[in-house]
Amino acid sequence: MKHPLRILFALVLSFVALAAVGLHNSASAATAEDLDKDARQALQILYKAHPLAETMSRTAKGVLVFPKVVKAGLVFGGSYGEGVLYKGSKVSGYYNSVTGSWGLQAGAQSYAYAVFLMTDKAVKYVQDTKGWEVGVGPTVVLVDQGVAKNLSTSTLTQDAYAFVFDQQGLMAGVSIEGTKISLIKR
What we know:
Blueprint: H1 4-27, H2 32-49, H3 51-59, E1 62-87, E2 90-117, H4 120-128, E3 132-133, E4 140-142, H5 145-149, E5 160-169, E6 180-184
Parallel strand pairs: 4-5
Antiparallel strand pairs: 1-2, 2-5, 2-6, 3-6
C-alpha cells in the first residue's frame, strides 16, 4: 500500500497540472484583435468602478491591461493571463502574466488587472526586460479602496499603480506581487 502523503502529493500535482492547462487555454485570447478588444472592454469596466483610474490614464505614459487572469490552486497554484500594453490609445505590445504559489489555498477564480505606468522610465523597464517581476524594478502601488481615497492627480508620485478588478470565483484575495510579466508575440 502506498504512503498516504505520496497519494496526496500525486493528487495535488495532478490537480495543478490540469489547472495549468485550463489556465492557459481559458485565459489566452485567440488573436491580437480579440485581446485588444477584451482589454479595452476591461478598461471600461475599471473606469466605471474606479473613476480615478480613468483620470490616471490621461497622464500615464503606458497602461498594461490583463482583461482575464485565471487562478487555480490546491496547496500549489498558479495564474495565467494575457494582456496589452497601451501607449496612449495605440497598442505597444502584448504580454503574459504568470504567477506560481504554494501554501494554504484551494479553489479557482478569474480577475482582471491594469497597471498604470506613470513614468517613461517604468514603460522602458517593462519594454526592455525579458520578464518583469512585479516587486522588482519600478515601484508598484496596489490601489484598493483605502489607497484610492487618498490619491489625487497631485499625489501620484510612484512609478506605477495597479488596480485589480472584476473578480469572480471561490478563492479569497488577489495579489500581483511576484507576478512575472513577459512580452509575447501575437
